[in-house]
Amino acid sequence: MSALLLSSEAVAERWNGRRTAAVVLVLTALLLIGLGVGGAMIPESAYAVHFDLANRPPSAADPFGTDWMGRDMLMRTLKGLSISIRIGLFASLVSTLIALLLGVGAAVCGGWVDRIVLWLIDLVQGMPHLVFMIFISILVGRGIPGVMIGVAATHWVSLARIVRAETIHLRTSPYVIASRQMGRGRWFIARAHFLPHIVPQALVNTVLMFPHAILHESGLTFLGFGIPSQLPAVGVILSESMRYLSTGAWWLGVLPGLALLAIVLVIDRCGDSLQALVSPAAAQN
């Protein structure tokens, strides 16, 4: 009787953990969608120049204050966060797609394909991460396309190694061996057996890669190799604020930086919730 009671309690705890993870995932996803779409719809007039309102500290009327040109820093920050979210989403999805194609392809084909993929992984991992992104961004022509390609081309390496190792392990599974003995081709096995096992893990990795992509985009922009200064990206805002922090205008850098940090933490929490849903064992923790 006691064993049955413990078992029911474990099931209830597991269900509550997964339900909590689902609620957190939905709420954070709605928040990110709202910021991404709502921020993109903010007109330029919302953060237009008003020199008569310059250098106002945070207040009820201007929660993030105004800059040296009288622009509303809250509207500029929301607009910049929407740009960062869209760039991070694109870079994460492309990086995951590259990792899946190379990881599965290397494990399925083997031979010279596997050697080339491992060489590419070692090549990208051997380069300084930030320098490689700067090089790609300059090569493409900077701007938003340069940042997107630069971030996407440097974040697939770790997932590709995991996908390759998982696929090699799956090749020795009984159902894969049985499918091969039934005459199924290697690409059928990859599509029917490997991808269903790997895609959930890749999906979690995409969400966890999201905040890294956003931070690297902001870092590139802060250093002057990313989004042009005409756009109110968070990296542009932080770079511009460095010239005015010594004058006491602390809000120009602190509040947008905290907003960026909050978004990164929210996305990271979203990834943890998704992992709890994909992995039943994680939901019990």
Structural write-up:
- The protein is mainly α and 285 residues long.
- Helices cover 75% and strands 0% of the residues.
- The protein has one domain (11-283): MetI-like (MetI-like fold, Orthogonal Bundle).
- The chain starts with a helix and ends with a helix.
Question: In short, what is this structure?
Answer:
The chain is built from 11 helices and no strands. The protein has helices spanning about 1-40, 75-110, 110-125, 130-140, 145-150, 155-170, 175-180, 185-225, 235-240, 250-280, 280-285.
Summary keywords:
285 residues; mainly alpha; MetI-like fold; 75% helix
Describe how the helices and strands are arranged:
Elements: H1 2-40, H2 73-109, H3 111-126, H4 129-140, H5 143-152, H6 157-170, H7 174-181, H8 186-223, H9 234-241, H10 251-278, H11 280-283
Helix content: over 70%
How many beta-strand segments? 0
Question: Would you list the SSEs in sequence order as H and E?
Answer: HHHHHHHHHHH
| Beta-strand content estimate | under 5%
Quick one: CATH class?
A: Mainly Alpha
Please outline the major beta sheet. none
Distance between the termini: 25 Å
